């Protein structure tokens, strides 16, 4: 018995007419009759009572019809699932990112994935450091990751995805908060104490900030380095200093804080995408294609038209 014979039997049982069943299947009536006889011989039962006027299911035929439909349906579902995995519309994809990815570009990417690949099972992993994300790409824990300043790593492909400007978090009553609708020069922070991320978590990101300050004529007065955005913002709200963050993080704030955009060409940071050299599921290609579209379409990345997110730009094709 094979699936073709079961499909022949299902069509004949539903039509109760060999001619109509053969036409539905696109086969000759003698071939269909032969396959039904072979199936009956295999089960050693009569499945269909045939007369010159009609065809009827026997009790054994009724029992087989229920089972045959279940088997054929499961095979169809399995075939569709395999095709979905092969085309990137199904299967599993594990995505890791630093916090800025979750606060920015990942949301419109996931929104598109949900529409275009509804059968795809996506798992998200938040990691505080790019080094940890790279290790998880290499050991197979992650399929793809968004990270910053990724060094060359054996077995991992890394591409620049986009870069973005910075914002400054400050208390609502801060002297520099009065004109929040306009971008500010980085040099305006020369006399301000700063709360930053530790360099050990993202060396290149930290160096971009320090280097930008030096180019603007001052050395940053770093009063605290904290390992989470929440801790940094708490210190800013308490008056310990201001905090420079990627514009994508500006979607997260507190009621007692405000943000101002740093002049985009003064200070920028990049976001990279990384995946294993020898492990590239079809769903990864779907993810990368959607990511490129989202970065290219500012209305998808920034649907509210927030000026703080303006200036995000693609780096190069992945």
Automatic annotation (TrEMBL):
<dbReference type="InterPro" id="IPR005119">
    <property type="entry name" value="LysR_subst-bd"/>
</dbReference>
<dbReference type="GO" id="GO:0003700">
    <property type="term" value="F:DNA-binding transcription factor activity"/>
</dbReference>
<keyword id="KW-0238">DNA-binding</keyword>
<dbReference type="InterPro" id="IPR036388">
    <property type="entry name" value="WH-like_DNA-bd_sf"/>
</dbReference>
<feature type="domain" description="HTH lysR-type">
    <location>
        <begin position="1"/>
        <end position="58"/>
    </location>
</feature>
<dbReference type="Pfam" id="PF03466">
    <property type="entry name" value="LysR_substrate"/>
</dbReference>
<dbReference type="GO" id="GO:0003677">
    <property type="term" value="F:DNA binding"/>
</dbReference>
<protein>
    <submittedName>
        <fullName>DNA-binding transcriptional regulator, LysR family</fullName>
    </submittedName>
</protein>
<dbReference type="InterPro" id="IPR036390">
    <property type="entry name" value="WH_DNA-bd_sf"/>
</dbReference>
<keyword id="KW-0804">Transcription</keyword>
<comment type="similarity">
    <text>Belongs to the LysR transcriptional regulatory family.</text>
</comment>
<dbReference type="GO" id="GO:0032993">
    <property type="term" value="C:protein-DNA complex"/>
</dbReference>
<keyword id="KW-0805">Transcription regulation</keyword>
<dbReference type="Pfam" id="PF00126">
    <property type="entry name" value="HTH_1"/>
</dbReference>
<dbReference type="InterPro" id="IPR000847">
    <property type="entry name" value="LysR_HTH_N"/>
</dbReference>
